[in-house]
Design brief:
Layout: E1 7-9, H1 14-24, E2 28-31, H2 37-42, E3 50-53, E4 63-65, E5 69-73, H3 78-82, H4 87-90, H5 92-97, H6 104-109, H7 112-118, H8 124-132, E6 135-140, E7 144-149, H9 150-153, E8 154-156, E9 159-160, E10 167-174, E11 180-186, E12 196-203, E13 206-212, E14 219-224, H10 228-241, H11 253-275
Parallel strand pairs: 1-3, 2-3
Antiparallel strand pairs: 4-5, 5-10, 6-7, 6-10, 8-9, 11-12, 12-13, 13-14
Helix pairs in contact: 10-11
Length: 276
């Protein structure tokens, strides 16, 4: 299929992009990498009167180290972040998750912020951002800038708190010294969206365990380290059973819960060993 007709705009500055969003609102779509947007337009799952192409805006194509946060601009591709020299030391969980994101070819075009904005509940980068306690930077012409925590930004499946005139300008991942991390997922094929994804961060004597694919958005369980011997028998079971889950062509909700329960111990153990 082909998309319905639309106009195309390629602003020269971020302010021009924000002005277009203010003018068109819900009728506009932001084009950065297009790896999710273009298929959805082709299948006519969504429509647009205008596509606003921000992929060549140099102001948004930057990775900035702010000490306690790494800020990734809206035009930064997934492969550019993978190649960033500080990734393994500053953001080891993101480094562990990125190889699971699509394929080399799609990561050349797909952007980090685009994945966050798309808000697929089985996507790896929204899960990593939620487990780390990251932030999303939104900008609009009328209201200026606002910053939302990851869990406040993603509200449900493919649904976020972004207003129609707002641009996801950047995402911020916290830098956590001395952390132990682990990431694992189950998918039909490498590069597919995960049937279930698990991310763990162990820091400051607390374990953060995240689940992707178990509900409409990533979910995070926080457990003090001293409770770890009882984690698998108690907390994880209650955590998983408390999530509604969903069925699709790839797996049932019950299968997703079983996968999480069976894989959680290995992921937690790897994160704790990494922190030792």
């Amino acid at each position: 299929m082909k998309p319905r007709p639309f106009d195309y705009a390629r602003p020269d500055t971020v302010d021009e992009a924000l002005a277009l969003l203010a003018e068109y609102g819900d009728d506009a779509r932001i084009l950065a990498g297009g790896q999710s947007l273009i298929p959805m337009l082709n299948l006519r799952l969504i429509d647009a009167k205008v596509l606003i192409d921000i992929s060549r805006l140099a102001a948004l194509d930057a990775i900035s180290d702010h000490g306690d946060m790494i800020e990734v601009g809206a035009a930064v591709t997934q492969n550019k972040l993978m190649a960033w020299p500080g990734l393994d030391d500053k953001l080891p969980l993101v480094a562990a998750a990125l190889p699971y994101v699509g394929h080399f070819q799609t990561r050349n075009r797909g952007t980090v912020c685009g994945s966050i904005a798309h808000a697929d509940p089985s996507s790896e980068l929204p899960l990593a951002l939620a487990v780390l306690g990251g932030e999303v930077v939104l900008r609009s012409k009328q209201r200026g800038e606002r910053i939302l925590a990851a869990q406040a930004f993603q509200k449900d499946m493919l649904t976020t708190a972004r207003e129609p005139d707002e641009l996801v300008a950047a995402v911020r991942f916290p830098v956590l010294a001395g952390q132990g991390v682990a990431f694992r997922e189950v998918a039909r094929r490498h590069g597919d969206f995960a049937i279930i994804a698990i991310a763990a961060v162990f820091r400051n004597q607390e374990l953060h365990l995240g689940a992707g694919g178990l509900s409409g958005r990533p979910q995070v369980l926080r457990v003090p380290a001293e409770d770890y011997p009882h984690l698998l028998a108690n907390d994880v079971v209650r955590f998983v059973e408390g999530l509604e889950g969903y069925d699709d062509l790839h797996a049932s909700a019950a299968m997703r819960r079983d996968l999480f329960r069976n894989l959680a111990s290995g992921v937690v153990g790897e994160a704790m060993r990494c922190a030792a």
